[in-house]
Design goal:
Layout lengths: L10 E2 H14 L5 H13 L11 E2 L1 H15 L4 H5 L1 E4 L2 E4 L11 H14 L7 E5 L5 H9 L4 E6 L2 H16 L6 E4 L15 E6 L12 H4 L15 H13 E10 L5 H10 L3 E7 L5 E7 L5
Parallel strand pairs: 5-6, 5-8, 6-7, 8-9
Antiparallel strand pairs: 1-2, 3-4, 9-11, 10-11
Helix pairs in contact: 1-2, 1-3, 2-3, 5-6
Family: Belongs to the protein N5-glutamine methyltransferase family. PrmC subfamily.
Keywords: Methyltransferase, S-adenosyl-L-methionine, Transferase
Catalytic activity: L-glutaminyl-[peptide chain release factor] + S-adenosyl-L-methionine = N(5)-methyl-L-glutaminyl-[peptide chain release factor] + S-adenosyl-L-homocysteine + H(+)
Length: 299
Amino acid sequence: MLPDDIVTARIPLRPLIVAAAGRLAEAGVGAPMFDAELLAAHALHVDRMRLALIPMIGVETAARIERLVDRRAARIPLQHLTGTAPLGAVDLAVGPGVFVPRPETELLLAWALGFLETQLLAHAPIVVDLCTGSGALALAIAHARPDADVHAVELDPDALRWARRNADARIAAGDTPITLYSGDVTDPFVVEHLTARADLVVANPPYIPADAVLDPEVADHDPHRALFGGPDGLDIIRGMVPTIARLLRPGGATAIEHDDTNGGGVAALLSSADLTAVAEHTDLSEKPRFVTAHRPSNG
């Protein structure tokens, strides 16, 4: 239902959005028109594609949009203002204390779902998401594959609370429940009961090198524990690879997201763990973004 003041609208919406985009561009926001439109749609409680159907708005709605634009111009993350971030067909609740899923992870998700499609299994596919954060990959996979038995591990208690909130919301929406664990992905005994049982292990771990220069939305608002992976960005991945190798069943596969400087380093770590068919993949900007590997069927 549209806000009441649309009925007595007096302010043209499109010029307001164009002006907002200009302000955001001046503030250094990367996609100013997209953000301005999404904030307007959020204030109006409509889908962004419906904005063209609303030529005029009321004073109160315009003020709501202006307040949102002010905060976005101060480089508050867009997703913190709207309260959600998408991954696949799932919208995830996000905010302070949890890493905001990025569009780059969509390709890793697509690869993971494609791999599961190739598997002719006599059992429900077992999927493990390491460093689940908001639950993004785990919940997107569970939504796309309701037959899957999805497990997700997160160490940070704040992030785990967001993951539980999102998991409960997806159950309410009719998705297959996932199993959440509080645990350290570098612990050699984490989710020990899944040893040699996982068909697929995915991970979007902290991987940014410690000296990286980041946009304010990331540096000032994403939890640093979810961002940085030591001096070279590989500390968590280096400690996590033995866990992945232990969890995978023969014939299983893994996909790990990484910093765009580290594709070769992640590939070498997976090869050193006796995983095969190691492949590097690029993201939507053609930058190195994730690496996949398989557990040999006879090993």
